[in-house]
Amino acid sequence: QVAERVEALGQFVMKTRRTLKGHGNKVLCMDWCKDKRRIVSSSQDGKVIVWDSFTTNKEHAVTMPCTWVMACAYAPSGCAIACGGLDNKCSVYPLTFDKNENMAAKKKSVAMHTNYLSACSFTNSDMQILTASGDGTCALWDVESGQLLQSFHGHGADVLCLDLAPSETGNTFVSGGCDKKAMVWDMRSGQCIQSFETHDSDINSVRYYPSGDAFASGSDDATCRLYDLRADREVAIYSKESIIFGASSVDFSLSGRLLFAGYNDYTINVWDVLKGSRVSILFGHENRVSTLRVSPDGTAFCSGSWDHTLRV
Amino acid sequence: QDMTEKELLKMELDQLKREVKNERQMVSKTGKEIKEYIESMAGEDPLLKGVPEDKNPFKEKGGCTIS
């Protein structure tokens, strides 16, 4: 009702501008570098690749000792990446342009969980990493020493995703899990501040709204939802009867007006956040869309898929 | 984590007891503020309003490539 008098959006034409090919198996995760052009991606084949999305060149590649690298993240400085998966760890690799240096040799093991790593993110510096795991917990680690700084208990099952609040909003993050709950945490105390349980199935993706006052979620129940943090409740559901496959990954456009969501039926649906309607459906991937992020300046978004490719 | 059903429920209950004390604002107010935020930022949202071809870093470049 809030958006009743808002003008509806016109027709949208979004094109795939780049296709990044090189992974030998399903792409599971990707992240943008703050320079708005580099991308790190990870795959079931154990490889983690850093791409220049403008040229599509691969700038770095490393092979992890495990398959199913489910999580990867770019450091804020652009000088390192973090990744992990079935090895139950999160490792940090400094990025070097010296051709004589072996990237794998400088690997630093930072986080240790007792089950798979599902998500990781640097905080606002290269010095700390936040992780989410199939062991049902999230944790904050010091990169240099590998020390556990804080752990977050509260989910009743695997945690599948997390997102840090925009830096202006303070030290919180949101996580989503197989217990159908989304939980908002205070990073300093380890306490859960708010929790939301309105989805009917696993929450695969959570993303803060640009102002930090809300967040969106994508779930195996085929819906995406918007939660208002200050009102402490769900305020919108993005769904259609024709959409029956799970949403794996969500992200907002720069203003927060659009919500991009990748689905297990190979499509990307673009939702009008205010009106609750779908404005566009994007085809192109030949298998599940597993990961999706809008670039730091909002000019593009990248999707990764089980079809082994990434599209910008 | 290996917790019994009873432990899980107790954890949930403790959490809900903490949350009941949270301050909540009215959706009529917060919803309006979300709408206003979007409207204030919409002009700068490249995926919303489009980017002129000459400023688009992802535009396909025609011509030859130098290898």
Defining traits:
heterodimer; A: 312 residues; mainly beta; four-stranded antiparallel beta sheet; 28 strands; B: mainly alpha; G Protein Gi Gamma 2; transducer (chain B); G-protein beta-subunit binding (chain B); membrane (chain B); cell membrane (chain B); G-protein_gamma (chain B)
Summary, kept brief:
The complex is a heterodimer of chains A (312) and B (67). Chain A is an all-beta fold.
What secondary-structure arrangement, pairings included, does this model have?
The complex is a heterodimer of chains A (312) and B (67).
Chain A lengths: L18 E2 L6 E6 L5 E6 L3 E6 L5 E6 L7 E4 L5 E5 L4 E6 L13 E5 L4 E6 L5 E6 L4 E5 L5 E5 L6 E6 L7 E6 L4 E5 L5 E5 L6 E6 L5 E6 L4 E5 L4 E6 L8 E6 L5 E6 L4 E5 L5 E5 L6 E6 L6 E5 L4 E2 L1
Antiparallel strand pairs in A: 1-28, 2-3, 3-4, 4-5, 6-7, 7-8, 8-9, 10-11, 11-12, 12-13, 14-15, 15-16, 16-17, 18-19, 19-20, 20-21, 22-23, 23-24, 24-25, 26-27, 27-28
Chain B lengths: L4 H15 L7 H15 L4 H4 L18
Q: What do these coordinates show?
A:
The complex is a heterodimer of chains A (312) and B (67). By secondary structure, chain A is mainly β. Chain A is built from no helices and 28 strands. Chain A has strands at residues 19-20, 27-32, 38-43, 47-52, 58-63, 71-74, 80-84, 89-94, 108-112, 117-122, 128-133, 138-142, 148-152, 159-164, 172-177, 182-186, 192-196, 203-208, 214-219, 224-228, 233-238, 247-252, 258-263, 268-272, 278-282, 289-294, 301-305, 310-311. In chain A, the strands form seven sheets. Chain A has a four-stranded antiparallel beta sheet, with no helix packed on it. Chain A has a four-stranded antiparallel beta sheet with strand order 2-3-4-5, with no helix packed on it. The mean pLDDT of chain A is 93. Chain B has 67 residues and is an all-alpha fold. Chain B has a single domain (5-55), classed as G Protein Gi Gamma 2. Chain B contains three helices and no strands. Chain B has helices at residues 5-19, 27-41, 46-49. Chain B is elongated and about 60 Å long. Chain B starts with a helix and ends in an 18-residue tail after the last helix. The chains are: A mainly beta (312), B mainly alpha (67). The A-B interface holds A 1-3, 6, 9, 14, 17-18, 36-37, 53-54, 135-137, 153-154, 156, 191-195, 209-211, 213-214, 228, 230-233, 235, 253-258, 273-274, 294, 297-301, 312 and B 1, 3, 8, 11-12, 15-16, 18-19, 22, 24-28, 30-35, 37-39, 41-42, 44-48, 51, 56-60.
